[in-house]
Description:
The chain has no helices and eleven strands. It has strands spanning 4-7, 10-13, 18-24, 33-39, 46-51, 58-60, 68-73, 78-83, 92-99, 115-116, 120-125.
Amino acid sequence: QVQLVESGGGLVQAGGSLRLSCAASGRTFSSYAMGWFRQAPGKEREFVAVLSWSGGRTYYTDSVKGRFTISRDNAKNTVYLQMNSLKPEDTAVYYCAAGTKVGSSSYVYRTSYDYWGQGTQVTVSS
Length: 126
Protein backbone atom coordinates (compact mmCIF):
# COMPACT_ATOMS: atom_id res chain seq x y z
CA GLN A 1 0.00 0.00 0.00
CA VAL A 2 1.24 3.46 -0.92
CA GLN A 3 -0.16 6.77 0.26
CA LEU A 4 0.61 9.91 -1.72
CA VAL A 5 0.38 13.49 -0.50
CA GLU A 6 0.91 16.39 -2.89
CA SER A 7 1.98 19.89 -1.92
CA GLY A 8 3.35 23.03 -3.49
CA GLY A 9 0.36 24.25 -5.44
CA GLY A 10 -0.79 27.84 -5.39
CA LEU A 11 -1.50 30.99 -7.34
CA VAL A 12 1.16 32.29 -9.70
CA GLN A 13 1.30 34.80 -12.53
CA ALA A 14 1.83 33.68 -16.10
CA GLY A 15 5.53 33.13 -16.74
CA GLY A 16 6.18 32.16 -13.15
CA SER A 17 7.28 28.88 -11.60
CA LEU A 18 6.09 26.38 -9.04
CA ARG A 19 7.49 23.13 -7.76
CA LEU A 20 5.06 20.44 -6.77
CA SER A 21 6.07 17.68 -4.38
CA CYS A 22 4.52 14.30 -3.79
CA ALA A 23 5.52 12.50 -0.62
CA ALA A 24 4.93 8.76 -0.59
CA SER A 25 4.63 6.37 2.29
CA GLY A 26 5.76 2.77 2.09
CA ARG A 27 9.10 1.07 1.81
CA THR A 28 8.63 0.07 -1.83
CA PHE A 29 8.49 3.59 -3.26
CA SER A 30 11.56 2.99 -5.39
CA SER A 31 9.81 0.17 -7.28
CA TYR A 32 6.99 2.42 -8.55
CA ALA A 33 6.85 4.51 -11.65
CA MET A 34 5.61 7.95 -10.61
CA GLY A 35 3.37 10.17 -12.67
CA TRP A 36 1.65 13.52 -12.60
CA PHE A 37 -1.81 14.14 -14.04
CA ARG A 38 -3.97 17.24 -14.01
CA GLN A 39 -7.63 18.03 -14.26
CA ALA A 40 -9.03 21.40 -15.26
CA PRO A 41 -12.64 22.35 -14.48
CA GLY A 42 -15.05 20.57 -16.80
CA LYS A 43 -12.30 18.47 -18.38
CA GLU A 44 -11.00 14.94 -18.13
CA ARG A 45 -7.97 14.17 -16.02
CA GLU A 46 -4.98 14.17 -18.35
CA PHE A 47 -1.46 12.87 -18.29
CA VAL A 48 1.33 15.39 -17.67
CA ALA A 49 4.57 13.52 -16.95
CA VAL A 50 5.94 10.20 -15.76
CA LEU A 51 9.24 8.97 -14.39
CA SER A 52 10.32 5.34 -14.34
CA TRP A 53 11.11 3.63 -11.06
CA SER A 54 14.84 4.00 -11.73
CA GLY A 55 14.53 7.60 -12.83
CA GLY A 56 16.11 6.70 -16.14
CA ARG A 57 13.13 7.38 -18.38
CA THR A 58 10.78 10.30 -18.52
CA TYR A 59 7.82 11.15 -20.73
CA TYR A 60 5.90 14.40 -21.00
CA THR A 61 2.75 15.51 -22.70
CA ASP A 62 3.60 17.79 -25.61
CA SER A 63 2.12 20.93 -24.06
CA VAL A 64 4.60 20.91 -21.15
CA LYS A 65 7.77 19.72 -22.87
CA GLY A 66 10.62 22.12 -22.25
CA ARG A 67 8.76 23.79 -19.38
CA PHE A 68 8.12 21.03 -16.83
CA THR A 69 10.63 18.61 -15.30
CA ILE A 70 9.79 15.53 -13.27
CA SER A 71 12.33 14.11 -10.85
CA ARG A 72 12.45 11.83 -7.84
CA ASP A 73 14.45 11.34 -4.68
CA ASN A 74 14.04 7.74 -3.61
CA ALA A 75 15.87 8.41 -0.35
CA LYS A 76 13.14 10.89 0.56
CA ASN A 77 10.28 8.93 -1.03
CA THR A 78 9.39 12.07 -2.96
CA VAL A 79 8.69 12.94 -6.56
CA TYR A 80 8.77 16.50 -7.85
CA LEU A 81 7.30 18.43 -10.74
CA GLN A 82 9.18 21.62 -11.51
CA MET A 83 6.94 23.86 -13.58
CA ASN A 84 8.44 26.87 -15.34
CA SER A 85 7.02 29.40 -17.78
CA LEU A 86 3.56 28.68 -16.52
CA LYS A 87 0.57 29.57 -18.67
CA PRO A 88 -3.08 30.15 -17.75
CA GLU A 89 -3.95 26.91 -19.52
CA ASP A 90 -1.83 25.05 -16.95
CA THR A 91 -4.46 25.89 -14.34
CA ALA A 92 -5.77 22.63 -12.89
CA VAL A 93 -5.72 20.31 -9.93
CA TYR A 94 -2.52 18.31 -10.16
CA TYR A 95 -2.46 14.70 -9.01
CA CYS A 96 0.43 12.43 -8.21
CA ALA A 97 0.12 8.74 -9.12
CA ALA A 98 2.13 5.58 -8.59
CA GLY A 99 2.14 2.29 -10.44
CA THR A 100 4.22 -0.85 -10.81
CA LYS A 101 2.98 -1.80 -14.29
CA VAL A 102 3.40 1.49 -16.09
CA GLY A 103 4.86 0.75 -19.49
CA SER A 104 6.17 2.78 -22.37
CA SER A 105 2.85 2.38 -24.18
CA SER A 106 0.52 2.74 -21.18
CA TYR A 107 1.85 5.62 -19.10
CA VAL A 108 -0.76 8.08 -20.39
CA TYR A 109 -3.67 6.03 -19.09
CA ARG A 110 -5.06 6.62 -15.61
CA THR A 111 -5.83 2.93 -15.26
CA SER A 112 -2.10 2.12 -15.40
CA TYR A 113 -1.62 3.63 -11.95
CA ASP A 114 -2.50 1.95 -8.68
CA TYR A 115 -2.38 4.81 -6.21
CA TRP A 116 -3.38 8.47 -6.31
CA GLY A 117 -2.93 11.52 -4.16
CA GLN A 118 -5.67 13.95 -3.23
CA GLY A 119 -4.47 16.66 -5.59
CA THR A 120 -3.11 20.18 -5.26
CA GLN A 121 -4.53 23.25 -6.98
CA VAL A 122 -2.40 25.24 -9.39
CA THR A 123 -3.83 28.52 -10.64
CA VAL A 124 -2.01 30.63 -13.22
CA SER A 125 -3.28 34.16 -13.70
CA SER A 126 -2.84 36.08 -16.93
